[in-house]
Amino acid sequence: MPKPSRRSTSPPSRCSSRWPKNSGTAERSSLYRLPSRLLAANAIDRYSIGDRTPRIAYAEDGSLEIAIQPAEPTDPVRRANWLPTPAGEPFTVIYRMYGPGEQAQAGAWSLPSIRPAS
Questions:
Q1: What is residue 31's DSSP assignment?
Q2: What is the rounded CA–CA span in Å between residue 61 and residue 17?
Q3: Is 105 helix (H, G, I), strand (E, B) or coil?
Q4: In this structure, is the dihedral angle defined by the CA atoms of residues 65, 71, 74 and 76, taken in order, positive or negative?
Q5: What tens digit of pLDDT does each residue of 37-89 get?
Q6: Hey, what CATH topology would domain 5-100 get?
Q7: CA 92 to CA 73: how far, in whole Å?
Q8: Which of 39, 83, 97, 113 is disulfide-compatible with 24, CB 3.0–4.6 A?
C-alpha cells in the first residue's frame, strides 16, 4: 500500500505528479505547510486539486498531471492543473482516493512519485 503523503523538506521550484486514468472513482490531492500541517494560503485560494476541480485539464489518455510549484505557470494546461506551494517552505501533499478501482484494491496500482518538472 502506498504511503498517504509525499514530503518535501527542501522543495524544488517546480515539480509534478501524474495520475493514471481509472485509479479510483474520486481522487484529490491537498497541500499542507510543514511543520504546522495547515493549509498553505495562496493567491488563487486552491488548497487541493482533483476530479472535482473546475476547468482541470486531462491528457488525451485520461491521466492528470498536477503542477506543484509556488509561481503561476505560464502554460495554460499547467495553469489549469496548478496546486500552489508556499515559496521556499517545506510542504506535504496528501493524496486521497475514494472508491478505489480494482487495481488499487488488489495492490496492483501505486501512487506515482512527485518529481521535478521537466
A1: E
A2: 15
A3: helix
A4: positive
A5: 999 999 899 999 888 889 999 888 888 888 888 999 999 999 999 999 998 89
A6: Jelly Rolls (2.60.120)
A7: 20
A8: 97
